[in-house]
């Protein structure tokens, strides 16, 4: 009719179209459900009525008007508290052990009359970079993720999405963004892939652009370390852990607020649109296999951290050492770059070395602190770093105050996503523009926020 | 079975049961709802609202599905009393 | 007899334990979690049973196969075009009614189906008793009860898979009866469908999709059939990577 040579496929399609009316799908699905129901009636029997609605009873607590939000906050706080309390001792022990080992390795180098640059690259660069990442990252992550996996396997995450949905809707975002954010706690790069559960391209883009406002495993340890060294300094024992945990929880909550705000602004401007329809299934709570989950998740995370330590921290350590030892005039490349950045960094309540560490840390967040320490150490006489106490001394020697720590935490929370995440964003969006924006938006926010806190604190003379 | 007085699913309160008559919504969302068991003739139980008032969780063919008001507004049927 | 590799697809609603089963069979470590949508990248793995090689594909979980979304199209296309030797439909035994919906759709597409009734341990805890033999009789395909996480029922499943790939199991998949009006339309459309798309594809199912106005399927049939048959092997090669 339309084409001169009718394609049999088109003809078939035309034919079918003439036969259908609007609600064919409805009739088809209704018949299928009818059949399912019939089959079930004849094959399924329920023997324990009281057991059937257990999940619903639990939901009346976990998603109740009064308890829904307090429970979420409490869960977050408890997970972080346990992480901090549990990681403290192993972290110190590891740091001490690596420091002790370093002494012997150095001795060995001396014995072999190895040139000092070789010792520098291999021990002061590679070895230190790697072992710092391991001692600072491994214990907290090996505690945090098993607990998180237990909650995930129990079925708590969809409840978080259910509770938070309204907030996301108000900011024009998709309710399942909570789920992708939860994945971000583990790794932002992986979370970018998980945004595939959001079908609408606009809302998916929102989820991608804001994902790095939840701290990933490369940043948790930084937040925990700085919070415990500087924010909880006035406390001891259990209270110290509590204060540290509170600060970290506050950071996470702040990240969520920024996520919602940025989503809201974007959905009023560059990504204008209304929230699309969606449905969320709340699966039954299932008791996880506790021991299996813990063992597997601890092993997986440990292997992951160790692998990252080798593939990212080791080269970064070498590079930093090299930069700190190539001289131009009477200063090193590292020191020179830090000086260059210093005036700007000061405006953000940071210093040149911190900013430089963030810049060099682009490939992976876990190397920021090691690079920073190496930078600091390269400026003065080489001190022995044994244990985590001496870390604080290094920071203090470089003029740190609680404000420096706070701003570094804020910058870490808010700044551009790591290299791997950016690559994934490009792969998923296939757009240079959006990849650039996913770099630029967080960076701008990190700068504005740290600038504001730095100046507010000065203004009020709080320091 | 009065044709005249059809209620919206969004009007039903927690604890109430509801029998779907028709979905006045088109496109992907309708199909998605059908797939989940929101088909004409099926019975739904309203479970509870989210702490912030929306969405609402429903029991439909032995599973729990949450819908925003935007969706449940378009599902019509009869309220058939409390559980 | 020449040795060949058999292909198995894992289909099912989200969160029914497909990845868990995949991990048990392949020894890989796809991530699993109690929320719908955990798997976003389909994975491929291999295993050997009784000296025979199997390739298994973890498809994304979907509520239906009606091409409402990219995921559903991926799953549908794999079953239709790559023609796996066996499609395992993983069902949640605690929500059989909703889950059967998808199983019935798969039965319309292929007769090489084994129903995996997973999460039997949870069903037992909730006092849900399922008459497996009767269910199998009604559906016309084997039904294997499983508790994938506890590795229960795996041996029986593998045995059933092996028998099916060797053609030792005759299946008679249930044919869903639709309303008179729809059945009449199907009858009208069937001859033409068979003529145009050939015997290679399930005609009744194609007719239903056409009545449903699913143009994407016809496009796929028209443009990709041979391409898909050959490329089927490569499509799932984002191997075993997941979030
Ligand atoms: N009790 C019990 N839990 C199980 C069983 N099989 C899987 N699970 C749990 O069910 C949840 C979902 O399992 P997955 O394997 O991630 O499900 P999936 O079908 O791959 O889900 P999607 O990727 O979202 O489609 C996980 O928390 C598993 O630990 C089982 O046999 N018994
Ligand atoms: Mg999966």
TrEMBL record, chain A:
Transmembrane segment boundaries: 66-84, 104-127, 134-157, 177-198, 218-236, 242-266, 353-379, 399-416, 436-460
InterPro entries noted in UniProt: Fe2_transport_prot_B_C (IPR011640), FeoB_GTPase (IPR050860), Gate_dom (IPR011642)
Ferrous iron transport protein B C-terminal domain segment(s): 248-296
Keywords noted in UniProt: Membrane, Transmembrane, Transmembrane helix
Residue ranges constituting the Nucleoside transporter/FeoB GTPase Gate domain according to the UniProt record: 135-227, 307-431
Gene Ontology terms: cellular component: plasma membrane
A GO MF label: ferrous iron transmembrane transporter activity
This protein's name: Ferrous iron transport protein B
Highest classification ranks of the organism: Bacteria, Bacillati, Bacillota, Bacilli, Bacillales
UniProtKB/TrEMBL annotation, chain B:
Keyword Nucleotide-binding included in the entry's annotation: no
Signal peptide positions (record): none
Keywords: Iron
Limits of the Ferrous iron transporter FeoA-like domain: 7-79
InterPro entries the record matches: Fe-transptr_FeoA-like, FeoA, FeoA_core_dom, Transcriptional_repressor_C
GO molecular function: transition metal ion binding
Keyword Signal: no
PANTHER family given in the database record: FE(2+) TRANSPORT PROTEIN A (PTHR42954)
Protein name: Ferrous iron transport protein A
Automatic annotation (TrEMBL), chain C:
Protein known as: Small GTP-binding protein
GO CC terms: plasma membrane
SUPFAM superfamilies hit by this protein: P-loop containing nucleoside triphosphate hydrolases
InterPro entries reported in the protein's UniProt record: FeoB_Cyto (IPR041069), FeoB_GTPase (IPR050860), G_FEOB_dom (IPR030389), GTP-bd (IPR006073), P-loop_NTPase (IPR027417)
Molecular function (Gene Ontology), one example: GTP binding
Domain FeoB-type G: 5-167
Pfam families: FeoB_Cyto, FeoB_N
